[in-house]
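Repro:
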Amino acid sequence: MEQHRAGGLHTLVARPPLQGQGPSSRFFQHDVQEARKLLEAIGALGASMPFQYAGARYGRTFQAIADATADALGQIGRRPAVDVQDYASRYLPRTFNGDFTGIAFGYETPFPEVGGYFTRLFGDDPANHGCVRDQRIAELDQRQRVERDEAKRRELIWEIQWVHVQRMHYVPSQEVEPFERLAQEEDRSSGGMSSASDGGSRAAWSGVCPR
């Protein structure tokens, strides 16, 4: 686990608290030079793209995370064109529902049951932010919905997360305090994917959704 300070915000760049993650753990390591090499290989180094999020809605911490994320994109060789959107008139009716180009940054709903995430992020939910349709995740989601054995369902839920962490449809962002609570709650979570919210006001992660 590495600690970094970006945009005035103390953050953690860390591997998820999962055992045996394997090669995909590299996606959670802070490696600016490797990121630049990957962008250069596809001709995207120095390219501009929209970076949008809701302003004046989630408070100063969220704003600091958004600013730090934009700064981090600049460090690896992208040129984010920051678009701070009005929540009610633009972000919620359009961006939140997948009507955007570039990168969108925002909190996810802290669902009380883990299955809600899979429908929202990968299924037929109208608010599927990235319009992602992943056949393998859909198959696993259907199986976990009807699995009555708790241990077997947990394994299916973990497998969904393994698939996603390799394909990275949504890039997780993490601030210190929720990450620490998420790590503490993991062993107690029967679903294997805790929202780690505090009264529903702050989700444990925010997604950057490539389009």
